[in-house]
Fold this sequence. Notes:
Layout: E1 7-10, H1 28-41, E2 45-48, E3 50-51, E4 57-58, H2 61-74, E5 79-82, E6 104-108, E7 112-113, E8 118-119, H3 123-135, E9 139-144, H4 147-159, E10 167-172, H5 182-195, E11 200-205, H6 210-219, E12 224-226, E13 233-235, E14 238-239, H7 243-256, H8 264-271
Parallel strand pairs: 1-2, 1-12, 2-5, 5-6, 6-9, 9-10, 10-11
Antiparallel strand pairs: 3-4, 7-8, 13-14
This protein binds zinc ion (ZN).
Amino acid sequence: MTSPAILTVAITGSVPQKADNPAVPITPTEQIEAVRECYDAGAAVAHIHVRNPDGSVSASPDLFAEVQEGVREACPDMIVQFSTSGRRQDQARRSDCLVLRPDMASLATGTLNFVHGTYENDPDLIREMGTQMVQNDIKPEVEIFDLSHLYSAVRYANEGVIANPMHVQFVLGMPGGLPFRREVFEFLLSELRVAAPDATWGVMGIGKDQLTANRWSLREGGHVRTGLEDNIRFDASRLASSNAELVARLAKTIAEEGRGLATPAEARRILGLKPGNKT
Ligand code: ZN
């Protein structure tokens, strides 16, 4: 029997605005409601970015706290994952949200050039955030945007900056990063299996590649992610009506591919997280 697949929903991100898709949740109230709908539709992990009321990116611990509290209340057991992404915000504040001790937080292990600007992840910052996660019992989701980020992640794990076993997310198709190609995915996965055989993992594609990435992941034993952060459309003909609509479709895809859908409790077991909400 194959292992259940963990479904993560990335509800907001740092890029899409309501002008792009009116269903993008911006305020904490909207975000909590969106997560609750996704939880009901089968999501086990909520990946959270917060925004100011005008839609701009924020790193405010108050906003993160409000969303986390609301999600924990509305969705027992659900895994809360904060983004520590440095896009469009003050670098020094990226780790502020870690004092709230979410279950998980994203951790990029290398720097990347976007089309404009740099997604800067200085080694000292990575070590500082990783150490803070170890100390606060926060499991990183290691974001691999480029090949070297994978080997760096293994090095940080050997240093104790990232706890083993790691959970990694391969991000393909970001301009400036790795292209969305099957050969690239297979190489990354084979390297991960050699360098960190115990790691759990997922692969994500942006936009129209999202569904293809989901199927690749499911067939190779990985986990899956969807949500308006990565893809604002349902298909070529229309926008997604909500995050939950994307989650419901992915839950069906998981069944079609012969995998089980991990409940939040199962997802906690697979990721080595403590059962129940953190206090
Ligand atoms: Zn994100």
